[in-house]
Amino acid sequence: MMDEKVNMVINTMRITTRDNRDVVIEPLGLDNGVLKIRYYEGTNEECPECIMPPDSFADMIKQMCKVQAPYVTDVEVVSAK
Q1: Would you say 76 and 34 are in contact if contact means Cβ atoms under 8 Å apart?
Q2: Is the separation of the CB atoms in 61 and 2 below 8 Å?
Q3: Residue 1 pLDDT
Q4: Residue 62's CB: how many other CB atoms inside 10 A?
Q5: Mode of pairing for the β-strands spanning 34-40 and 24-31
Q6: Number of domains in the chain
Q7: Contacts 24+ apart (CB under 8 A), 46-55
Q8: Which CATH number belongs to the domain containing residue 67 in this structure?
Q9: Tens digit of each residue's pLDDT, the chain (81 residues)
Q10: What was the pLDDT predicted at 31?
Q11: How far is the C-alpha of 50 from the C-alpha of 4, rounded, in Å?
């Protein structure tokens, strides 16, 4: 179960990627400062550059957590596909 601050970051990422089809963003846990998330970037034929690769997704989550949830020190992305 994620806390409110981490949920806020994850929900922001869901909003950011909502125009892409079949996106998966599923928090798996937070252990010793490492946030583990199952992620699939989805598809977007109308805007291929709108797709967020897993590395970029992890970097953005880390940056947001520095401000919102500083106890998250790293992000591990697990492929959902």
Answers
A1: yes
A2: no
A3: 60
A4: 15
A5: antiparallel
A6: 1
A7: 47/19, 50/19, 50/20, 51/20, 52/16, 52/17, 52/20, 54/79
A8: 3.30.300.130
A9: 679 999 999 999 999 999 999 999 999 999 999 999 999 999 999 999 999 999 999 999 999 999 999 999 999 999 998
A10: 95
A11: 27
